[in-house]
Amino acid sequence: xxxxxxxxxxxxxxxxxxxxxxxxxxxxxxxxxxxxxxxxxxxxxxxxxxxxxxxxxxxxxxxxxxxxxxxxxxxxxxxxxxxxxxxxxxxxxxxxxxxxxxxxxxxxxxxxxx
Amino acid sequence: xxxxxxxxxxxxxxxxxxxxxxxxxxxxxxxxxxxxxxxxxxxxxxxxxxxxxxxxxxxxxxxxxxxxxxxxxxxxxxxxxxxxxxxxxxxxxxxxxxxxxxxxxxxxxxxxxxx
Lengths: 114, 115
Hints:
Chain A is mainly beta.
């Protein structure tokens, strides 16, 4: 069974630009969550989508948005990039939103903002 | 508050030594799940174990073992006879069913196993 895939793996952007990251969950998984990982802040929850609906949201500004498609694939968008947005963005999928469902992570997209 | 504390930022051990990674959590919920993930240099978080709050049985999987103690709100992870391939950052996480309905991760412990 294929794992969670994320594209692209690496991205370099400049301040003010916008970026879209993509995540394909494990087949059969309907929940996708996004995390930002930085050396200073660790792993921070961005949002979770289930059945095309955002179920939960972390404490990030509105520049960070996401969506989920009917095939459970998800995209995350960051507009008006700032230097502080440089991070590893991790996507995780799980079957549903039940507490017994384990999250499985993708390899991440490393975003560098210059 | 929902919080996970991994007080050990970095640990170095010599190959074949045993090492314990500490995890202390805070929660108001009676139902919750605890997790350990391993993040090798490649970046992908690898799931290691899940434990629910009603199951305090310790678990052993090969060289890995986990000690869950509700009385001290701890979920420690021990690697026996460490190997160089164990070098990674290890994260402890908690999922609350009734509060926040999201995963909260500790800041991670970076383990280096020296050959």
